[in-house]
Design goal:
- This protein is α+β, with helices and mostly antiparallel strands and 372 residues long.
- The protein has twelve helices and 13 strands.
- Helix content is 43%, strand content 17%.
- The longest helix is centred in the middle third of the chain and has 30 residues.
- The two termini are 52 Å apart.
């Protein structure tokens, strides 16, 4: 990255030094109170002004060039077991989390899955930082996990789970299809956010399936294992975030099994984690339901909402229904789940006019089969 102001300041400094040296060589020994010639004074003034312009300018935008030459894929592979679905859904539910009994982790639980976020005293990662991450960035963290899993699978294929992949945050953003700045690359805040998500994911443990004959007890697995996470300077002018990770064994096993994974459009990675969090969450939960061989061709809306941990608000139910409709329509239009549609009960317009929106929510269903 060329810094024009710094080049100008360096050139002005060199010119001032040359001018002063030339003048000094003409001053005789013992001479006092010698005035600087005008050209020397002007050269020194230009140097001072150039240094001031360099030090007082606003920060330069941070750009990151391509590292892995990652590109947005057409499709991604996502894990679909109940444990995976519950784990990611819990990242959307900050109210579900509380301190664990041993005081070493933040914990959330469904009827089948217990998820823990282990604290790290060495790095100062405690309960406040953990709950803040879930509250402010939970959907983004879930989306980052889906991107990490898909990227590892794309690059490493059938390699063993313990095979590390070196990744730059800029390429992870490109893999997700995020728009670059007009000057190219990504803002530093976006790069740091990906590093923050990756570190948080490395602190998560979840129950691990045990084979028959193994001793029964608490067996845990990580979503990802992180060996390194660092922010470095590239050529002294460009900040980058890079990390080295591999998938947890359980996640690796899921992605390698067609019965426990599914292929969907990569548009799932491009939804905004705040404005379009329902698209991400419902898209993932519906993918899990559709991959169930006994799942049929539709699902009742109340059951889908329960799977996703979404509760209807006490007020503004019509706005909530519209939000769900928009999410379903986006998933169908964007090719994440083609043919997906929300089917309301007969007479739903009368129910809506009579402010019986809850009855619509209780009886609607989502169709996703071949005939939908």
């Amino acid at each position: 990255m060329t810094d024009t102001l710094e080049l100008e300041a360096n050139a002005a400094e060199e010119a001032a030094r040359d001018a002063f040296a030339k003048f000094y060589s003409t001053v005789g020994a013992g001479e006092a109170n010698v005035a600087l010639p005008q050209e020397v004074a002007e050269a020194l003034s230009r140097w001072v002004e150039a240094r001031r312009a360099l030090t007082e300018r606003p920060p330069l935008p941070v750009r990151t060039g391509p590292r892995m030459r990652a590109k947005p894929p057409a499709t991604i592979t996502v894990p679909t077991p109940l444990t995976a679905r519950d784990a990611l859904a819990l990242l959307f539910l900050p109210d579900a989390w509380a301190a664990s009994e041993d005081g070493n982790a933040l914990q959330a639980q469904t009827s089948r899955t217990t998820l823990r976020v282990e604290y790290d005293d060495v790095l100062g990662f405690g309960p406040d930082q953990a709950i803040r991450q879930i509250t402010r960035h939970g959907p983004a963290t879930a989306q980052t996990f889906l991107a990490l899993a898909a990227l590892w699978r794309e690059r490493m294929g059938d390699a063993p789970a313990e095979t590390y992949l070196d990744v730059w945050a800029s390429d992870l953003l490109r893999f997700q299809g995020r728009t670059e700045t007009p000057k190219g690359g990504y803002h530093k805040d976006d790069l740091v956010a990906r590093g923050r998500d990756v570190y948080f994911l490395s602190r998560i443990t979840l129950p691990k399936a045990q084979a028959l004959g193994e001793l029964q007890g608490l067996a845990l697995s990580r979503l990802i294992s992180l060996e390194a996470l660092e922010s470095v300077s590239d050529n002294g002018s460009e900040s980058v975030v890079r990390f080295r990770y591999h998938l947890g064994r359980e996640v690796h096993a899921w992605l390698g099994d067609p019965e426990r994974s599914a292929t969907v459009s990569s548009a799932l990675l491009r939804y905004h984690p705040v404005r379009q969090k329902y698209q991400i969450l419902l898209g993932f939960c519906l993918t899990c339901a559709m991959n169930n061989p006994n799942g049929g061709t539709s699902i009742e809306l109340p059951r889908l909402l329960a799977m996703a941990g979404i509760h209807a608000p006490p007020r503004r139910l019509s706005a909530f229904l519209t939000t769900l409709e928009d999410a379903i329509a986006d998933l169908a239009r964007d090719g994440v789940l083609p043919g997906l549609r929300l089917v309301k009960p007969s007479g739903w317009t009368d129910l809506l006019a009579a402010r019986q929106t809850r009855q619509i929510l209780d009886t609607a269903r989502i169709e996703y089969g071949p005939g939908s």
